[in-house]
């Protein structure tokens, strides 16, 4: 059974239909990317998956549970890290637990052991402005994990990072996904990023947005440094560009 399924999702705002009959699924341990031009409905689909927006048609399932219009069932990390500057990093990270009714001390105790796994050891009692961009994203990802049910929706989480930092965090994120048994749906505008990270890529395009294709990346992860220079990589890229 898929860990997440969206079945026949349609959404309209006023006279503007944003999504039409969109169905996608995420299997356990997968990283699946959603690629499409601006305005094709990617973020709207994520709002529906996370329960923040109700579709006119279609349902969202987490395992065998219908979570349509149920916020908090599937974790959602936006492009900006949205760390609260006046709170220590450990309190930013453990905030989802506090919002669920866990006492602050207990929430800190649950979050603290994960700092080392996320490469954040020693930052617990710093403030967000004291962290680098890459470290802030790790903190935001840890916060997302603590509020998750083993599934994360990430909306362009690495787009603000420089090339070297992005490359490093890509490698780290794939390792941490495997280590903590996390499955990920991922919005990106970066075709190279999607090919490097994904098990599968959905092409969402058109107005209203529809799934135009599903591309399976067959090479095993982690993919070597030579992969972006290979003919196989370029073939995937050409296939994707032809669908956008």
Q: Can you walk through the features of this model?
A:
The chain has 244 residues and is of the alpha/beta class. It has two domains: 165 residues, 3-Layer(aba) Sandwich (Rossmann fold); 67 residues, no CATH class. Helices cover 34% and strands 25% of the residues. It contains nine helices and ten strands. Strands 6-7-8-3-9-10 form a six-stranded mixed beta sheet, with helices on both faces. Strands 2-1-4-5 form a four-stranded antiparallel beta sheet, covered by helices on one side. The chain is globular, with a radius of gyration of 18 Å. The model has no long low-confidence stretch (mean pLDDT 89).
Biggest sheet strand order reads: 6-7-8-3-9-10
Mean of all residue-level pLDDT scores: 89
Could you say which structural class the secondary elements and strand pairing correspond to? Answer: alpha/beta
Q: What is the share of helical residues?
A: 25-40%
Q: What fraction strand?
A: 15-25%
What is CATH's topology name of the largest domain?
Rossmann fold
In DSSP terms (H or I, runs of 4 or more residues), the helix count works out at: 9
Please, how many domains? 2
CATH architecture tag of the largest domain: 3-Layer(aba) Sandwich
Q: Can you lay out the helices and strands and say which pair or pack?
A:
Elements: E1 4-13, E2 16-26, E3 31-35, H1 42-49, E4 57-62, E5 65-66, E6 75-77, H2 89-93, H3 95-99, H4 104-111, H5 114-117, H6 133-146, E7 151-155, H7 163-180, E8 183-187, H8 191-197, E9 200-205, E10 210-216, H9 231-243
Parallel strand pairs: 3-8, 3-9, 6-7, 7-8
Antiparallel strand pairs: 1-2, 1-4, 4-5, 9-10
